[in-house]
Amino acid sequence: MRVSSNQYHITVNASLQNSNTQLEKLMGQMSSGNRLTRPSDDPIAHVRISRLQREEASIAQYKDNIGALSNRMTQSETVLSSINSDLLSTRDLLVWALDGGNTGEDLSAMATNLESLRDALYASALTKDQEGSYLFSGTLSKTATVGFNAAAAAGTRYTVGGNSEQQQVVVGNGLTQPANVTLGDEMAAMLNTLDQAIEAIKGGGTTANNPATRASLQAALTGVDTGMDQVSTKISKLGGAQNIVSTLETNWGNLSTANQTAVLDYSQLNYATAAVQLNTLMSAIKATQSAYGKVSQLSLFDAL
């Protein structure tokens, strides 16, 4: 079959252009270290990488949520532990106050200490987070956990604020974890009974043997014991929740590492293979150019 000179030139130029295009693509891959410069390079790998990247975005959000949740839990546990410590000190004073050998002056002095503990407990119940929201007010985080009316009678000055609803945080696909602990009901009731007992003994004109005074002190002691049990239960639940969250954080971290490794496997250029391809392309281009140059110099006059 005869091939015209023009057709030969077109064929060789097309071959060189194709080789140069492949060379340019390969050089770009080697420069970036990424074998996928566009989706068409490997459509299946591109789809898999896109799916992994979407999953990575979700994991990053879960990990951010878990980080914020862990901080909140740690803060809540710290405050609850402080409350528990103050309740224990309050209990010791109430047990001492119930001793029938105490004089009115003794009880009055104890009342001063109990007032300090009561105020500390109230302040702890009103703890806010870094955003200025009440830590223990449920979903009504801008409402004080416990209200206070100084004009009300002892035993009714403290009122429940906020609510007992839980703030759910997404920590996984279909997984949520409560972010808050509520204290309104427990603290208001305990503070009222304690306040009433303080009112009964602070004047110095009574003793623990007085039936009304003793009943008030006993009610306060019962309230404090109940409060300690409730706070201890909340601390225990927080500890369990923190273990769950810590495990989730570790699992998401491991999955993220696996995803990142998979993305590299799909997209990272194998430089050894690329070097072989580069040498092959360069040799092919050089051979084509050499052959083209020699053939182009041929003429029918050379046969004469």
TrEMBL record:
Subcellular location field: Bacterial flagellum; Secreted
SUPFAM superfamilies per UniProt: Phase 1 flagellin
Identification of the protein by name: Flagellar hook-associated protein 3
Species annotation: Comamonas terrigena
Pfam name, any one: Flagellin_N
GO cellular component, one term: extracellular region
Chief location: other
Gene Ontology terms describing biological process: bacterial-type flagellum-dependent cell motility
Keyword Oxidoreductase: no
Keywords carried by this UniProt record: Bacterial flagellum, Cell projection, Cilium, Flagellum
Taxonomy, superkingdom: Bacteria
Domain Flagellin N-terminal, first and last residues per copy: 3-139
UniProt family annotation: Belongs to the bacterial flagellin family.
InterPro entries, per the entry: Flagell_FlgL, Flagellin, Flagellin_N
GO MF annotation terms: structural molecule activity
